Structure formats: C-alpha cells, structure tokens
Amino acid sequence: MSLVLAPDVTAQADTPQPVAIVIHGGAGTILPENITDEQEQAYRTALRTALETGHDVLTDGGSSIDAVVAALQTMEDSPLFNAGKGAVFTSENTVELDASIMDGHTLNAGALTGVKHIKNPIGLARLIMEESEHVMMAGTGAEDFARAHEVSFVENEYFYTERRRRQAEEARSSNDRDDARDADADGIPDYDKLGTVGAVALDQDGDLAAGTTTGGTTNKRFGRVGDSPIIGAGTYADNATCGVSATGHGEYFIRAAVAHEISARMEHGGMSVQEAARTVIMDELPQMEPDGGSGGVIAMDAQGNIAMPFNTPGMYRGYVGTDGTMVIRIYRAEDEE
Ligand code: ASP
Predict the structure, then answer these.
(1) Which of 39, 53, 145, 208 could form a disulfide with 243 if both were Cys (CB 3.0 to 4.6 A apart)?
(2) What is the CATH number of the domain that holds 213?
C-alpha cells in the first residue's frame, strides 16, 4: 500500500491519459467440448457488451469507478454469469450475493456479503464505499443501508435460473455418490462451479479501480463467504501498483490474500504486473494444501499493462487496451502459459 501522490498531480490531471479496461467472467474447466458454438457466441457477446459499456464511460471522461460499475452491472443483469441474475444456489436453494469495489486513488473500498434482494450488488458496494463510514456490510444490515439510497430491490426468485437450479441438484446428488468423476469433493464439475465476474479500469486521470461480484460457489453452505467481497483477497486497487479482480476457489484465494499479494510483489519486489500476477496464480496457488487453489485473475497497472493469468483450462476474459484494441478470449491462447 502506498499513498504517495505524484508531485505534478495538477499537470497530470490536465492531460487526459489513455484509458483501458479488463474484465473476467469466471475461470474453470472451460473447454471447446464443454460448450456449444451458440453458448460460446452468447458469452463473447456478453463480454463485448460489458467491455464496450465500461470503455464508453471511460472515453466520455467517466471515472474508473463509474466504468467498473457500469461494465459489471451488464454482467450482473446477464443470466450467463454467476453474479446477479443467474447466480448459483446455496445449499438452501436460495441465492446469496457478494461484491466489492476499490478505488486505487484513495484506497477507499466498499464490500457486501450475503445479500438476497439487491438487483445490482456492485452498485451497493460503491454506495457502501462512498456513502457509509464502513468498508464491509453483511446480509440484512447491508440491505437496510441500501433502503436509504436509490437501490433496486428484487425478490430472491429474480436471480433464479433453471440451469443453476439443476447444477445445485446435481451437486447434492453427486455428494451422495462416491463415483463423481472430474469433480472435486463436493461433486460439482469444475466448469459449472465458477463464473464470478470482475473488472479493472484505468481512467483519463490515471486512476485505477477494481470490482468483483458473485453468487459464490454452487451449493455453498448458506452464510459461507468467499474471496470476492474481501478486499485484498478477491479485489484490490492501488494506483502505485495495480488493480486486481480474482475468480476461483475462494477459500484458497482468501488464505493466499491473492489480490493484495500481487500488489505487494510489485511494490516490494519490483515485479511487473505480469510477473506478479503470474507467480501468484501459476506458481504459488497450485502448491497450496490440500488440493491447490484453482482460478485466475485480471490485473492492470497505472500504465495500462494487463495480465490475465489462470491455472484452469479456461477463463472468460477480455480487455480494451490503451491503444483501443479489443481482445476477447475464453480458452488458453498460444501466447499464454
Ligand atoms: N471466487 C468465488 C468464490 O469463491 C467463486 C468464483 O470465482 O467463481 O466465491
């Protein structure tokens, strides 16, 4: 963490910096044989919509916080991702949502966990950051805070999709079988388990912001909290280093304090954003006991350098770089590890 301001802040603010945005839509066993062409197209379209929405905000002079919220709300509203509508079910057949956001300029942050009636949790995370004296709020307390602000409330059923209900049922029944192949101890195939969304943006003032929003993991015990709403685990942003949003097996990401660890390697170890993100995701997480931490991150520094490492077969991801080029990927590309 570093709060040293550049000496020529005013001069910097006068000259618009090139903008950039990077997003993810979850990591897992995403292989061409696991999804149809139609599904792949639908994911690519949704990723493009999120990128264009966030990038438009940035080119119009909006802040990185505005861009992260705008991009992630499109993904929360899409049933494809495990965030907002389409989020996974808990063991009680309900949906409990987690989200967080961090401002790399001020190191201010907002987060919530276990909300059941907030249509767009990332927007509430921003309100907690900007309108409350707290960083993190839980469950009914977070929803009560939301009532005092302009926040859309929905019934828990709004989030339900048939696909996620089926996944939860399959997870429960394969828990009872001991022959669950290609699945972890909870019996859920990897490619169905993940799907969190996240964004990191760089605005014209050179400020970074990062946000993450999720339903957590399929069939999680109600009350379980993953890494996504935890500042330093699933989300982190510091203009002096980078912005990070994570996706993967949250318990491992919490224990490794993944997002802050990447920032710390840049700050104290002099690593580039690519090296810092790669060493944490590819070298350290897989070594953790007992099963290795699977997942990935998106990360970007204040110059717009982008890293998207993941140790699973695939990760929904994309970016618009400082040169305006848009890239959308699902599977591992030739030039990646
Ligand atoms: N990291 C999230 C969690 O553990 C899940 C995900 O990324 O899909 O709640």
Answers:
(1) 208
(2) 3.60.20.30
